[in-house]
Specification:
single chain
Length: 217
């Protein structure tokens, strides 16, 4: 997981911290609030900023360091660059999946598919039963995860988990208790279990991790 203070923490299955990495970019100073998501695996991870800059970090001699920066260049209908709050990756194909942070319910959300080199491959409007009027923009989509051929996002003040196919169609909407997921900051899905991480500010207690079981179909 990543924090607003530009840190990466690796956790084991008991949520014990096993590794901490301070994240530093070459082209920007991103030490407060601009880091939004992380994907990766053993000895490599990619960190996404809200402006679409992606830092690639690789492990050498037990230490992680920045090896490359990638800029996502995708614009909306007005010619403006998107802002981002989540990133999913298909480890088999190397493709990335993003739902931009539109910042308002009057803007239609889209599912962006990037190739392994972060160039645009596809962009789909997010729809419900083929109708844009029923799409996710009513929920203000946030975050994102790719799991087993589907993309999952949190929405509507983080009280719903939405399952999409890879062309942006909403397949299912799961209600979450607002009391249970107050002020979450990110989520992950492992083996049909959904883990939602609570928010954390300076001098506050360590944030909780909420675990949900959802029937996948």
């Amino acid at each position: 997981m990543v924090t607003d203070q530009a840190e990466m923490f690796a956790l084991d299955e008991s949520f014990t911290i096993t590794e901490k990495v301070n994240i530093e970019f070459d082209s920007i100073n991103c030490n407060q609030g601009c880091i939004e998501a992380i994907v990766g695996g053993v000895d490599e991870f990619f960190v996404l900023t809200d402006s679409g800059l992606v830092g690639q970090f690789n492990k050498q001699d037990s230490n992680y360091s920045l090896t490359q920066e990638h800029q996502i260049n995708v614009e909306n209908e007005a010619g403006e660059s998107y802002r981002y709050s989540g990133l999913g990756k298909d480890e088999v194909s190397g493709e990335y999946y993003l739902v931009p942070d539109q910042g308002g319910d009057d803007q239609q959300d889209v599912l962006i598919v990037l190739s392994a080199d972060f160039s645009l491959k596809e962009k789909h409007p997010i729809t419900f039963n083929g109708e844009p009027e029923g799409s996710i923009f009513e929920y203000d989509a946030q975050r994102g995860q790719y799991v087993d051929g589907h993309v999952y996002v949190l929405s509507e003040k983080y009280t719903k988990l939405i399952k999409l196919n890879l062309v942006g169609e909403i397949l299912a909407v799961y209600d979450l208790s607002e009391e249970d997921v107050a002020e979450p900051s990110d989520f992950a899905i492992r083996n049909g279990e959904v883990f939602i991480l609570g928010d954390h500010e300076n001098d506050e207690a360590v944030p909780p991790v909420f675990q949900f079981t959802i029937e996948m179909y």
